[in-house]
Design brief:
2 helices
C-alpha cells in the first residue's frame, strides 16, 4: 500500500471506478494492510444507517469467496455481525457497484446505497 503524498486527497489511495486488483490476495483472510485499507475506506458497517465502527466488524466478501469472490478492495466491506447475517438471509441482495459503494436490495425490492467514508479535503 502506498503512502499518501502531501496535499493528496485521502480517497486517491483507494480504487475508485474500476479495480485493477493491485492489492488482491489469494487467501480468504485479507492481509493486515488490506484490512486496514478497507476499515479506513469505510469507518462504519457498510449497511445503510449502521454506525458500528469498522474495527468491530467482520470484513465480508460481497461475492462469497467460495463462489469466486476476490479478496480485494473491490469485493470486501466491513459488516457488523447482525448485518452480515442480514446479507445471508433469504431475499436480501448485496452488490458492490464499485470499490466501497454498496447497494443493498431488500426482500421487497427497495435498494439503498451506502458509500465510503468521506474525508474533508
Amino acid at each position: 500500500m502506498r503512502c499518501r503524498m502531501a496535499g493528496e486527497h485521502p480517497h486517491a489511495m483507494f480504487e475508485s471506478a474500476g479495480c485493477v486488483h493491485q492489492r488482491q490476495s489469494t487467501a480468504y483472510r485479507p492481509p493486515s494492510a488490506l484490512q486496514h485499507l478497507i476499515r479506513v475506506r469505510q469507518q462504519t458497517c457498510a449497511f445503510p444507517g449502521c454506525r458500528r465502527p469498522a474495527s468491530q466488524c467482520d470484513l465480508d466478501h460481497t461475492t462469497p469467496f467460495q463462489r469466486g469472490g476476490l479478496t480485494c478492495e473491490c469485493n470486501l466491506a466491513p459488516l457488523c455481525r447482525a448485518h452480515h447475517q442480514t446479507k445471508q438471509a433469504p431475499g436480501w441482495q448485496l452488490r458492490q457497484l464499485r470499490p466501497g459503494v454498496l447497494a443493498w436490495t431488500t426482500p421487497s425490492g427497495r435498494t439503498y446505497t451506502k458509500a465510503q467514508t468521506v474525508y474533508p479535503a
